[in-house]
Amino acid sequence: MMYYTVGEMAKRLGVAPSTLRYYDQEGLLPFVERSEGGIRVFKESDYEWLQVISCLKKTGMQLRDIKTFIEMAMQGDQTIEPRLALITKQKESVKAQIAELEETLRTLEFKEWYYNTAKENGTTSVPRNMTLDELPEEFREVRLNLRGE
Amino acid sequence: MMYYTVGEMAKRLGVAPSTLRYYDQEGLLPFVERSEGGIRVFKESDYEWLQVISCLKKTGMQLRDIKTFIEMAMQGDQTIEPRLALITKQKESVKAQIAELEETLRTLEFKEWYYNTAKENGTTSVPRNMTLDELPEEFREVRLNLRGE
DNA sequence: TCTTGACTTCAAGTTGACTTTAAGGTGTAT
DNA sequence: ATACACCTTAAAGTCAACTTGAAGTCAAGA
After folding, report:
1. Which residue stretches of chain B have pLDDT < 50?
2. Chain A residues closer than 8 Å to B111 by CB
3. How far is B13 from chain A, CA to nearest CA, in Å?
4. Are A60 and A26 in the same domain?
5. How far apart are the C-alpha atoms of A86 and A51, rounded to whole Å?
6. Is residue A87 part of a domain?
7. Dist CA A125 CA B117 (whole Å)
8. Are B65 and B100 in a shared domain?
9. Do A55 and B104 touch (CB under 8 A)?
10. Smallest Cα–Cα separation from B57: which of B103, B81, B11, B26?
11. Do residues A68 and A3 share a domain?
């Protein structure tokens, strides 16, 4: 069986060793064992826990809430339902985040068109003063929103 | 013509007045004028600037970089090209963020299936010990990644 | 005119997630 | 046995983006 030090595991995950020590200190890594001399010993299975922590972090979840999830997982099968509920909630949150970023993307695409048009004409006053029906149909709603209806 | 105080504009944008004062202090709102008595007077056109700032913030851009963009905009038509470049770069960044969130979403969907299966069987050991070909095809790659190939 | 509520500035405090520093211990290779 | 790289903890420092507090000013209504 393969074991890792904090430095090796950090490298594998692409994070700083101090980050893993900080997570451990915050109670996110109760599964990590220690050697006789007090050195952290990461097992192969710990990698999967760290990947799950990383996944939850990417959803924007705070460390304190990830800790709650890990603590539930440590209690075993009696916490399956709340863990499922937490995952489902986070899944919905990510869907909402994607929707918001797609909205932001539409605004940026409008702005890109805006500056491309400005560049072609040498001035922003051309795209700025266009009437609604002069601009590409897909940007009309975006501009209305930017200007507050 | 319609004018707003900091409190009114903050309400319209759904942020705290202190946030707008902070942005002003950081140089993000050079376009905001003042009354005789020194009170900020927001014009209708300032709303659009604030919406653009809000859009860039949603892309994860830092205030100092948003400030650079605003400063370029204040210089007028000679900065059209760098502004276009900045918008295009940010657009690519948002696309990458969406792609990453979609990857995260797939992992969460796997975890949701995992805990649903655990719930049905009363134990996580059922989904955990499944062989690759026992799990739904769309989750195989996700599990391989979680476990580090 | 006076009250009231919202405005002003400046400075200091908060939050979350790390990172750094200092002082010292571990473990492996020669 | 002695380097040497890497490990340990505790405490302090950093950063971005606000938020709060104190002390005072402005403007509209009674």
Report:
1. none
2. 52, 55, 87
3. 10
4. yes
5. 17
6. no
7. 59
8. no
9. yes
10. B26
11. yes
> Which stretches of chain A score pLDDT less than 70?
1
Residues 51-70 of A with CB under 7 A from strand C: 57, 62-64
Is residue B82 domain-resident?
A: no
Q: How far is B145 from chain A (nearest CA, A)?
A: 9
Tell me the CA distances in angstroms from A5 to A17, A35, A70, B130, one per residue in order: 9, 10, 21, 29
Distance CA A38, CA B58 (A): 44
Helices (H) and strands (E) in chain B, counts: 7, 3
* CA gyration radius, chain A: 24
pLDDT, position A114: 98
* Cβ neighbours of residue A63 closer than 8 Å, sequence gap 6 or more: A23, A26, A28, A57
How far, in Å, CA of A123 to CA of A119, rounded?
A: 7
Residues in chain A closer than 8 A to B119 (CB atoms): 80-81, 84
What is the structure's pLDDT at A104?
A: 98
Structural domain tally of chain B? 2
For residues A38 and A104, membership in a common domain is answered with: no
For residue A16, what are its two tokens? 């700083």
Question: Same domain for B2 and B54?
Answer: yes
A36 CB less than 7 Å from any atom of strand C:
yes
Does one domain contain both A114 and A54?
A: no
Residue B56, amino acid: L
Q: Domain span at residue A119?
A: 93-149
For chain A, the average pLDDT equals: 97
- Please give the pLDDT value at position B149: 77
The closest CB to that of B112, out of A84, A104, A118, belongs to A84
A44, A77, A84 member nearest B116 (Cβ): A84
Distance from CA of B16 to the nearest CA of A (A): 18
What pLDDT is recorded for position A44? 96
Name the residues in B22-81 having a C-beta closer than 7 Å to nucleic acid strand D.
Answer: 22, 35-39, 57, 62-64
